[in-house]
What we know:
By secondary structure, this protein is α/β, with parallel strands linked by helices.
Amino acid sequence: TLLYSGKLKNNKVVVPAVSWPTTVAPAIQLGFEPILCEADKETFGLDLTHLKKLLKEHKPGAAILVHVLGVPNDLEPIIELKNRYGFFLMEDACAATGSTYDGARVGTFGDLSSFSFFFGHHLSTIEGGMVCTNDEELYDLLLQLRSHGWAKDLPHSKEAEQAKHHKAIEFNRPFTFYYPGFNFRSTDLNAQLGLSQLEKVDDVVERRKENHAIYQDRFSKASQFHFQKNSRAEICSISFVALAPSSEARETIAVRLRSNQIETRPLGGGNMSRQPFWASRYGTIPLPMADRIHNTSFQLPNHPGLMPPDIHFICDTVILGNKEH
């Protein structure tokens, strides 16, 4: 969308080292120059010191941040940097539905934000998601790019203006494609599922917040682990993540969790530069915090179906080694 808006000052984009492949891959697919930013020690989002350095050195046209597993970035200083350096900001809020920063919902701070409705996230349409913006021009572009590149979804006056500008043949107007678009429209079935999910969204958000708060309280008393924090945020996570003291300790914890039928996994892709799709193109970039996350992170379940006793049992299994439920 930003590429076709004509508003970007260049094709450089800062991307987070700790993220998901589809946060980073579009920059490669669309011919941008991706610049990897270190992970913040507290939020696991963009590291402000490294971000400032990259902004001064590269003067990118855009940056994207991830609210990692629902924990918001430290947004106030990032917005200050956006205003100072004049880049477009995109928020990947796919795992952060319901999270807030200084009382405002994440996804409302950037020029564009994305949310996921994958079945393991807060709301589900099985697959799919949404993009949000308060920029009318970007919104009109999104309507066209999601649907083949045609203008059928625009108000009639705007469609007519485009047709006139491009001298579209009258009979061909409904099938005139102004952008190289995609077919990202939601199906009626997915949409109906999503609408039904809205009826319980408040309960889902509160249950996930309460579960995350229990995890934070328990792990704050276990000094051997490091976990995400943001004192200015209310966190609605899809799972809780902690860093083990070492890779070996993580393996021991994983065995204990799985023996108690508790699912676990690393945090996303860890340091994205250690993933083959990046390393084969740009080489591996040593980033201390991103590497620590890559090597020692493990996720713990958060779901509205889990009650406080379940969360405490999971915590006991990790922290105390408890093997009885």
